[in-house]
């Protein structure tokens, strides 16, 4: 029987901007507890993410890596958040998946 990785899923708000970006960082950082190897940031219901939100996602990925946790992003393809992730090149730094199910499983990664 193979080892099954049970990811921790963090559901993010519909809009991420300067007013709540630090909360997003705190939520993801809190999920990176000892023994958690994968955290999925669920942005599938997020329709807006400004530059402060993107900056905090990058900071969250660095904190996750420092604790030995992989941060994966689940982002609905074709939306505004997907577009900004691609345009900024964040999809080259973080694994981005089109759904939570694919982010939780193996394969199906969508590159930017």
Structural class: alpha/beta
CATH class descriptor: Alpha Beta
| H-E string | EEHEEHEHHEH
Q: Are there runs of 5+ residues with pLDDT below 50, and where?
A: 107-112
- For the biggest β-sheet, the strand order reads 1-3-5-6
Question: Can you tell me the overall shape?
Answer: globular
Cα(first) to Cα(last) distance is 33 Å
Query: Can you count the beta strands?
Result: 6
Query: Count of DSSP helices?
Result: 5
How much strand content do the residues show?
Answer: 15-25%
What is the domain total for the residues?
A: 1
Overall pLDDT level: 89
Helix content: 40-55%
For the sheet with most strands, the description reads: 4 strands, parallel
Annotated CATH architecture:
2-Layer Sandwich
CATH superfamily: STAS domain
């Amino acid at each position: 029987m193979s080892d099954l990785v049970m990811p921790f899923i963090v559901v993010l708000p519909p809009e991420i901007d300067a007013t709540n970006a630090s909360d997003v960082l705190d939520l993801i950082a809190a999920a990176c507890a000892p023994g958690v190897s994968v955290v999925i940031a669920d942005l599938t219901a997020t329709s807006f993410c400004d530059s402060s939100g993107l900056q905090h996602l990058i900071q969250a990925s660095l904190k996750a890596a420092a604790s030995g946790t992989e941060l994966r992003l689940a982002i609905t393809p074709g939306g505004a958040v997907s577009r900004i992730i691609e345009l900024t090149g964040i999809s080259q730094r973080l694994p981005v998946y089109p759904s939570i199910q694919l982010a939780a499983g193996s394969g199906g990664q969508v590159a930017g």
